[in-house]
């Protein structure tokens, strides 16, 4: 098992049915930040195009909880912003666009290093969760732009499929999410895929991995699909 001081919260989405923005994750987020004495979040809005509007939405949601939110786009040097931050939150949108912007600004390696050495807390939602994994091969997004690589920040050695839906669509004749994931698993470079249902949160604490939030997850491996409820320990995925 790789030794790491990493701490991360990986959300399937910022939105969950019947909850306001990030409300379903409020207790986990507050506990995560408070026990690490963090009061300011550096928000990375690169997965969408209107950085000011997106950052303002996150401020409106998290500000009342007692935290300050600053957008990385307001800094002249994004690398310096990461070096001076205690916690980063990467929001959702288009994963291909997000990863390209992270590479363009030379942030992939520095985020990986600082999270793994314990000097930076990581929060991600949807696309922000995708880029925390080994690669973005299992995103649901359309490839609207081409990043230099599909390799992501690699805080965890597996992939995630956010917004995972497990249903039997009797009238739907197209491919299901399960079939799409199976296509990926047939590739020689494939790794396990954790499908996070809406409202699911993956809590990474060094070499511990616990499913939290208000919904569970499905683990996809070759020829095998396993369901895990909220509270399940899936630390074996870090081996």
What does this protein look like?
Helix content is about 25%, strand content about 25%. It is α/β, with parallel strands linked by helices. It has one domain: Class I glutamine amidotransferase (GATase) domain (Rossmann fold). The chain has a 7-stranded mixed β-sheet with strand order 3-2-4-5-1-8-9, with helices on both faces. α7 links the parallel β6 (about 160-165) and β7 (about 195). The longest helix has 12 residues, at about 50-60.
Which parts are unreliable, with pLDDT below 50 for 5 consecutive residues or more?
none
Please, how many domains? 1
| Strand order across the largest sheet | 3-2-4-5-1-8-9
**Per CATH, which architecture?**
3-Layer(aba) Sandwich
* N- and C-termini, Cα separation: 5 Å
Shape annotation: globular
Strand content bin: 15-25%
Structural class: alpha/beta
The total count of helices amounts to 7
Q: What is the count of β-strands? A: 11
Query: What is the averaged pLDDT score?
Result: 95
Q: What percentage of residues falls in helices of 4 or more residues?
A: 10-25%
Q: State the CATH topology.
A: Rossmann fold
Radius of gyration: 17 Å
Note the run of SSEs as H and E. EHEHEHEHHEHEHEEEEE
Main beta-sheet strand count, sense and barrel state: 7 strands, mixed
The CATH homology group name:
Class I glutamine amidotransferase (GATase) domain
Class, according to the CATH hierarchy? Answer: Alpha Beta
């Amino acid at each position: 098992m790789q030794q790491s001081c990493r701490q991360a919260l990986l959300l399937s989405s910022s939105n969950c049915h019947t909850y306001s923005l990030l409300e379903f994750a409020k207790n986990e987020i507050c506990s995560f930040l408070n026990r690490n004495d963090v009061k300011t979040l550096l928000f990375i809005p690169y997965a969408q195009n209107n950085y000011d509007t997106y950052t303002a939405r996150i401020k409106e949601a998290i500000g009342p909880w007692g935290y300050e939110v600053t957008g990385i786009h307001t800094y002249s040097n994004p690398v310096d912003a990461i070096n001076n931050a205690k916690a980063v939150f990467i929001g959702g949108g288009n994963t291909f666009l997000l990863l390209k912007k992270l590479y363009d600004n030379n942030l992939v390696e520095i985020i990986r290093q600082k999270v793994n050495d314990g000097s930076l807390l990581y929060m991600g939602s949807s696309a922000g969760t995708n880029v925390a994994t080994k690669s973005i091969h299992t995103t649901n997004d359309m490839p609207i732009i081409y990043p230099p690589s599909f390799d992501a920040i690699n805080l965890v050695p597996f992939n995630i499929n956010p917004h995972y839906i497990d249903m039997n669509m009797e009238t739907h004749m197209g491919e299901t999410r399960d079939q799409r994931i199976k296509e990926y698993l047939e590739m020689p470079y494939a790794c396990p895929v954790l499908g996070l249902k809406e409202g699911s949160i993956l809590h990474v604490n060094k070499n511990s991995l616990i499913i939290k939030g208000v919904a569970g997850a499905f683990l996809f491996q070759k020829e095998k699909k396993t369901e895990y409820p909220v509270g399940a320990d899936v630390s074996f995925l870090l081996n």
